[in-house]
Amino acid sequence: MGVARSSQLPDAAGRFGRYGGRYVPETLIPALDEITAAYAKARTDRAFQTRFTTILKDFVGRPTPLTFAANLSKRYGRRIYLKREDLCHTGAHKINNAIGQGLLALRLKKKRIIAETGAGQHGVATATACALLGLKCHVYMGTEDMRRQQPNVFRMRLLGAEVIGVDSGTRTLKDAVNEALRDWVTNVETTHYILGSALGPHPYPMMVRDFQSVIGREARKQILAAEGRLPDLLLACVGGGSNSIGLFHPFIRDTTVRMVGAEAGGTGSELGQHAARFDGGSYGIFQGMASYVLQNSDGQVVGTHSVSAGLDYASIGPEHAWLRDERRADYVRCSDDQALAGLHLLAETEGIIPALESAHAIGVLPEVVKRVRKGAIIVVNVSGRGDKDVAEVARKEGVEL
Ligand SMILES: *Cc1c(COP(=O)(O)O)cnc(C)c1O
Questions:
Q1: Rounded distance between C-alpha atoms, residue 325 and residue 329, angstroms
Q2: CB of 60 within 8 A of CB of 96?
Q3: Is residue 248 within 8 Å of residue 234, measured between CB atoms?
């Protein structure tokens, strides 16, 4: 196989090696086929791509800057750049995908949108895209996540979306995905499901990757302009895997560029204490795809924990599983405490309060810099801004607001 073939993946069955594919109820296959066909056309359709690019520019505010982090660079002796997805409209990279899929829903003539959300960022992004494009929006969200992310719940409602609390399971992201899939099976004729990360059944991992690859394409151009060469290392946090694959994908064939993903290490290494799928998970089928899954010896998916709702998920996008098998990308874990330290570090040294998710990439930076020589160029994806997390961080640190 090898990375030379990476641009041809997934194959026609939606597989990245032994990962990916489609494991869904039969009733959803026609809808997935319809999306696959419509997306194949949209991908090469000038009008679609122009409309997408125009909205990213005029509404989302792209291209986002690539900021040279002078103080961090000085501290670690490497040239560290930050890709500023925190400056996207709505505060994170999720909007790139929500706009792309919203435009696809218009092509499919489906006026009702459903989505799942963890941190609330994908819900806000989808509600925003729906308001812009005139689509009706229903967002499923675990009630534990609703508690942790109240401002985002209200934001979605302001944007005209209906937020539906999910009380089953651990009341987090995976339960919201289950409810969204259940809704979709029932309403598939009228409804498009805007999945929020590079996972789930084919064609979602591919489609979401493509919509998010604008991050890596811009970063590539920007670093070439700033440094005259490609970076030595890319670093991003990995929940479902969309901001990281968006950054990584345009560099996969540049084998001198190392790629490191940071998973949620939570509070410990026991099952249930973290969401580090590559470090505690195993091959399995979950929510429509084959990938690494945090499961017990009976194949039952276990509860996960992370200080950040957006990384708190039991599986990981199939392309990451493939990249790891190919040893093209490497994945490390970042504990809750390291992530909180990362948030403080970026805030104090660079004047940027990152989302708790993004803080996982910053949290491992002090270790990861050691993988490259002094003076090497590192690009870190700041996937989102931290405003949504300020109250939760204060609570964690025993500060009363
Ligand atoms: C949702 C989210 C993530 C995690 O999702 P990915 O699909 O892995 O990118 C990371 N950062 C932020 C700010 C998010 O909102």
A1: 8
A2: yes
A3: yes
Exposure string over 324-355, b if 16+ CB within 10 A, otherwise e: bebebbebbbbbbebbbbbbbbbbebbebbbb
CB under 8 A, 24+ apart: contacts of 33-40: 34/108, 35/104, 35/108, 35/192, 35/203, 35/207, 36/202, 36/203, 38/104, 38/107, 38/108, 39/104, 39/203, 39/207
SS3 110: coil
283: phi then psi, degrees, rounded to nearest 5: -60, 130
CA dihedral 173, 306, 203, 380 (to 10 degrees): 140
Neighbours of 187 (CB within 10 A): 15
User: What is the per-residue pLDDT for 150?
Assistant: 87
**How much distance in Å is there from the Cα of 63 to the middle of ligand 1?**
19
Structural domains of the chain sorted by starting position, each given as residue range(s) with its CATH number in brackets: 14-56+94-208 (3.40.50.1100), 63-91+213-396 (3.40.50.1100)
Question: Are the C-beta atoms of residues 16 and 10 closer than 8 Å to each other?
Answer: yes
Summarised one tens digit per residue, pLDDT across range 6-24 is: 778 999 999 999 999 999 9
pTM above 0.85, yes or no: yes
Residue 274: the pLDDT is 97
**pLDDT < 50: residue spans in the chain:** none
Cα separation, 312 vs 47, in Å, equals 37
β-pairing, 15-16 vs 191-193, is unpaired
Check if 83 is active-site: no
* pLDDT at position 4: 67
The protein residue with its alpha carbon nearest to ligand 1, atom 14, reads: 310
Tokens of 91: 């505060």
pLDDT computed for residue 119 by the predictor: 82
* CA 244 – ligand 1 centroid, Å: 9
Report how far ligand 1's centroid is from the alpha carbon of 290 (Å): 20
Active site annotation includes 270: no
> What's the pLDDT at 297?
93
Task: Give the pLDDT of residue 149.
Answer: 84
Q: How far apart are CA 279 and CA 369, in angstroms?
A: 21
Identify whether 94 is a catalytic site residue: yes
CB-defined site of ligand 1, < 6 Å: 92, 94, 119, 121-122, 197, 237-244, 310-311, 355, 357-358, 383-384
pLDDT for 212-236, tens place per residue?
Answer: 999 999 999 999 999 999 999 999 9
